[in-house]
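Hi C.,

You asked whether I'd gotten around to modeling the 175-residue construct. I have! Everything is below, sequence then structure, no commentary in between.
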Amino acid sequence: MKPLILAGAMLLAVIAGWTDSRSRRIPNWLTVPAALIGIGANTALGGWEGLKISLLGAAVGLALLLPFVLLRSLGAGDWKFAGALGTFVGRIVLVDLLLVSVFVAGIMALGLVIYKGRVRQTAKNIGHIFVSLVTFRLPGSHVSLDNPDSLKVPYGVALSATVVLYGLAYVWGVV
């Protein structure tokens, strides 16, 4: 990956993570121009191959996360952020980033549960979800993401942190 492209992805991640942490939204004014910049930068630096990398990265990011948006377990801003990020890093790196970000989000969620003192309630909710999976029934509304009392981790922050960590690992020669 070209350092300029990685720098663009990291800048996008920092801004998206900051806005998501402050307002729980990643706005279109960020994701749409970022996608165009990612496509333009990859095309300028890599020609037709760079264009292909960008478009496939966007398509894979949007396709992989669309089911979660449709199930209302992921916001549309997070979805568009992943697509814009894909225009910078391409499909292969994006898939790795998305997988690692799930673990980062899990660590953030665990920290939030402990911080809020909701370990027992969370364990009960996980039990309800497990029983629902085994019995092929939907869990009750108390374990729904629509529950206003449920704890929520901003996924954009987790994905942003993952991108920054990846960028630092790349600079240090670890990846």
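If it helps when you're writing up: The CA atoms of residues 146 and 165 lie 31 Å apart.

Thanks,
B.
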